[in-house]
Structure formats: structure tokens, C-alpha cells
Design brief:
The protein is α+β, with helices and mostly antiparallel strands and 400 residues long.
């Protein structure tokens, strides 16, 4: 650590403007940036990044960000040591879950927390609990570090990804491989109720196609029913990952999440059946070996033909609680009056990819994922304000 946490938090506390942050958070929530079939290329998502986040960040910091070829935002505050590979990276997200049936999903209004089991005023809006509360706090933290006047020893970078709900590393991969984004430490901004999340499960999507032979259902013996083949596939896979576990993340899992068959004609034995499998990965699991294990288990499944292909995958993550980035956040949390133990997520997230690429990355941010994707997505204002101070104090400890 290059700065004492008490001094770092004092500076952060002085430089975070609560009224400015509150208004920024509400503004981010009022602009829809929902997940659609267009994924990261959706104009609402790329427009949110380029037309809303980018100008606000430049106004807050005086440093202009750039937009890459995928629509991601990249911003950097240089230090005396200019090599970004030695710096700290904040990663925020633009894309949110769709509004669905949530009333007033883009109002950004302030509501009392008590009806939702929370204390104090809360902000209402889709994406607040997962992406946008953390994003607002990270923007405010970048501003606080810039306004501190302290010369950094190493750079602070901030990336705003066009992902957030895609279930894949494409945007993060683009930033690292095409833009050359790098760092020594990383903090992914997601709703953790301002607790430090040290790790998460990964995931590999696997598509299995079972092929048989169609015929009229009055003479099923004349064909090969692909539906029966799908049942045989599931029986073969039953128990395949039994015994695989992690002390914090629990057991690995392999489940079918989708199944369809054809031809879609009445009274017809089906000649193909398509299954989508979700294989959750534990730290240390290799995605390629997980796929190979499934492929081996489904070999020679007579009389059907079985094809196994890999879909999207995301790496698992695991960081020690004694890592420098976790220690900096924990120390800043204590100064902010935050409590609660470390977290571990069963969901697959970009922290796994960043760690795989050598960036020591944890997750931290305001918002409770128990409210995410619900009809009452709310975040306590005080939690967002504290998060901004924790982000800034952690950055100053590591870089100033």
C-alpha cells in the first residue's frame, strides 16, 4: 500500500459530492440500456455509453474517455509510473436486465426503504442493484481521485463494458485483446451490498443434438425416437459431476436448461432433439476438459447419433482475502462503517476472465442482488455514497 487507509478515506470522503452522485445515479437509471437479442451491439446500450456515461465522466474528471470498436468506454488517469499493467482497473457495466413487468422501471425516483426491508431513502430503477449503482459510484470515485490533486504512482483505469447480462466474456475479451487494456489489480462493480466478493463459479454452455429417425407414431418401431435418446443422454450425465466441490462455492453442477425436438408435426416420431446444458465450473476447473468429459460420457449412445458442441463459457474466479486489492477494499470498508463477511457468487462473471489474464480481480459494489430482476429494484442511497468512498479510498491506497 502506498497511502495509509485513514488518509485515503479522509481524502475520498472530502472529494465525493453526495448531491452530485445522487443526481448522477438517478440520471443513469432514467436512460434505458436493456438486454436484447442484439446483445452488446444494441444501439440503446452503446448510446448509453457514448452519449450519457462518456460526457458525464469527462465533465467529472476533466479527462476524456474513448469509445472502442465494440462500444466499450476506456478512461485512464496516468501516474508517475505510466505502465497501465501496474495500475488499478475499475470495470463497470452498461447493460441491464429488461424492464419486464417492473412499474416505472426508468424513473430513478427516490422511495422509502422500509417497505422493502431497507433503511433510509432508496433509488428505484431497473439495473440499479446489479450494474448502475456501482457504475455511478465508480464514476464518482474516479472524480474524487482526480480532484484529490494527489499524484498517482501508477495509473487508474476505468472501463465501462457494453455487457452486463450477456453471459459471456466477449466485451471484456475485446478490451483486453483489441484495446490492450491491462492492470495489476481489478475491481468489478456489481451489487454485493458493499461486501468484497472473492470468487465465483464459471460456466460452460453445451449444446447436445440427438439424431434418430422419424416415422408415423402409430408404428414407432419403424423409427428411432430422438426424445428417447434425449432421456438416455440425461441418464448418462446423471451424477457426472458428483463429488466436485469448493469450500466456499459449494458443488459443481450440470443441468439441462432447454430442450426442443422436431419435426413439429403431429403423430410423428421425432428425428432430432436439441438440449442445452449448463455446466457450472469451480475454481481450477478447465472449460475444455469439462466439455471433453461430457463428450466422452455420451459416446456410443446407440442407436442414436449424438453431437456435442461448446457454446459460451465464462471462467471461475478465486482471490485470496489477503490479496492486495481485497485488503485495500476491506480497510476502506472499515473506515466507511461497513460490516459483513466476504462473499462468493454462484453466478459466472467477468472477474474470472480478468484473473485468468493475470489481473488480480475481486467484485464490490452497492445493491443487493436479491432485488435484481424483480418488480421492486431498489438501492439505498447511503450504500451508493459509501461505495464511492470505498472505491476512491482503495484506489488511493494502491496508487497514490
Amino acid at each position: 500500500m502506498t497511502m495509509d487507509v485513514r488518509e485515503a478515506f479522509r481524502i475520498a470522503d472530502e472529494r465525493v459530492d453526495d448531491s452530485e452522485l445522487d443526481a448522477l445515479f438517478a440520471e443513469l437509471l432514467r436512460v434505458p440500456s436493456e438486454h436484447t437479442e442484439l446483445m452488446e451491439a444494441d444501439p440503446a446500450v452503446t448510446g448509453f455509453v457514448a452519449d450519457v456515461v462518456a460526457p458525464r465522466l469527462e465533465a467529472l474528471t476533466g479527462v476524456a474517455p474513448r469509445i472502442d470498436g465494440m462500444g466499450n468506454l476506456l478512461w485512464r488517469l496516468d501516474g508517475a509510473e505510466p505502465d497501465p499493467a501496474e495500475g488499478l482497473l475499475f470495470v463497470g457495466y452498461a447493460m441491464t436486465y429488461p424492464a419486464a413487468s417492473m412499474p416505472d422501471p426508468f424513473s430513478g425516483k427516490v422511495v422509502p426503504g422500509e417497505p422493502h426491508g431497507l433503511q433510509g431513502p432508496c433509488v428505484w430503477g431497473r439495473g440499479g442493484c446489479e450494474q448502475k449503482a456501482a457504475l455511478a459510484a465508480m464514476l464518482a470515485a474516479a472524480a474524487a481521485v482526480t480532484r484529490s490533486g494527489r499524484e498517482l504512482t501508477r495509473p487508474l483505469s476505468l472501463a465501462v463494458s457494453t455487457a452486463g447480462e450477456t453471459g459471456r466474456h466477449d466485451a471484456a475479451r475485446y478490451m483486453l485483446e483489441q484495446d490492450g487494456l491491462t492492470a495489476r489489480y481489478g475491481i468489478v462493480g456489481l451489487g454485493t451490498t458493499n461486501r468484497v466478493c472473492l470468487g465465483n463459479k464459471g460456466r460452460i454452455d453445451v449444446e447436445v443434438v440427438v439424431r434418430g429417425k422419424s416415422c408415423h407414431s402409430s408404428t414407432p418401431w419403424a423409427g428411432v425416437n430422438a426424445v428417447d435418446g434425449a432421456r438416455a443422454v440425461l441418464e448418462r450425465l446423471d451424477g457426472l459431476v458428483d463429488g466436485l466441490s469448493h469450500p466456499e462455492l459449494g458443488e459443481a453442477s450440470l443441468v439441462a436448461t432447454h430442450i426442443e425436438s422436431g419435426p413439429d408435426i403431429l403423430h410423428t416420431i421425432q428425428d432430432h432433439c436439441r438440449l442445452t446444458l449448463d455446466r457450472r465450473l469451480l475454481p481450477g476447473d478447465d472449460p475444455g476438459e469439462a466439455l471433453a468429459e461430457i463428450t466422452r460420457a455420451l459416446a456410443d449412445l446407440e442407436p442414436w447419433q449424438v453431437e456435442v458442441t461448446q457454446g459460451n463459457f465464462m471462467y471461475p474466479a478465486e482471490v485470496s482475502e489477503n490479496s492486495e486489492v481485497a485488503a485495500a477494499l476491506e480497510a476502506a470498508r472499515e473506515q466507511a462503517g461497513e460490516t459483513g463477511p466476504f462473499l462468493w457468487f454462484p453466478a459466472a462473471l467477468d472477474a474470472g476472465y480478468l484473473n485468468e489474464k493475470g489481473i488480480e480481480t475481486v467484485m464490490f459494489g452497492p445493491g443487493d442482488l436479491a432485488f435484481a430482476h424483480t418488480d421492486a429494484e431498489v438501492v439505498p442511497l447511503e450504500q451508493v455514497r459509501r461505495a464511492a468512498r470505498v472505491y476512491a479510498a482503495a484506489a488511493l491506497q494502491l496508487l497514490a
